[in-house]
User: Fold Pantothenate synthetase from Hansschlegelia plantiphila.
Amino acid sequence: MTDVVTTVSALRARLSSWRAAGERIALVPTMGALHAGHLALVARARSEVDRVVVSIFVNPTQFAPNEDFATYPRNLDSDLAALQDAADLLYAPQVSEMYPEGAATVVTVGGPAAGLESDARPHFFAGVATVVTKLLIQCAPDIAVFGEKDFQQLAVVRRLVRDLSLPVEIVGGETVRETSGLALSSRNAYFSPADRTRAAALYAALDAAAAEIGDGGNPERAIAVARLQIERAGFAIDYLELRDAETLASSDASEDRPMRLLVAARLSNVRLIDNVGVTKSLRPQAVVASRR
Assistant:
């Protein structure tokens, strides 16, 4: 049975008894409208610790005035039903609990927050960093699990935890996809059936480009081909870029470092983000060199 608390004081009271018993705690922050991707993060958390807390909070500070804060999917009863036997506690604070009247503190992060989402949504990461910092302080978990679908967000959270010396381990959970390859997202609910089918082209193009770059192909050519395929499917692209997987600095694939291909694009007024890792294939010359 998953219990619900809505205030910081009630959350801390529940967590204190678990800590007194020596139990490890995980936090899975979400904005609700839970789907199989969220539940995979909860399962990952459960595999690591004794107790799992899921937070549901549609954070107003990460939405711009022209974005979908008012219409973002919300169904707490359905979310609570999905969490039964999966999480120990649901933390569902109101806006007034997270941002008391007169709140004036904002957390900003540089480094991996620069570019990509920040170019399209300059308000976004200050809102994310502020609410995540508050959740981590309120819950003080041993680990917190974030999805790799929001790869830049994951990098930003890791940086703020490192820079602020917060005593929590940040764990990334793999992206969960539909059979078509489309990454699960709460915003997929906005699609018509026809657009949902077309949306699968985003991942197909991204995956093909990553494979070509990994096999030693020209990154600029691979990205140009992917861009054309995505646009032909009806998307308007915000960005499609190859970045260093750790720092999110621009990458040209010349260095032997993990890379990530990241995209954000809009289809019928629905904005999707996705990313895939780029794994370099073993070069023939490297094989020869290893035998000398």
The first helix runs from residue 8 to 20.
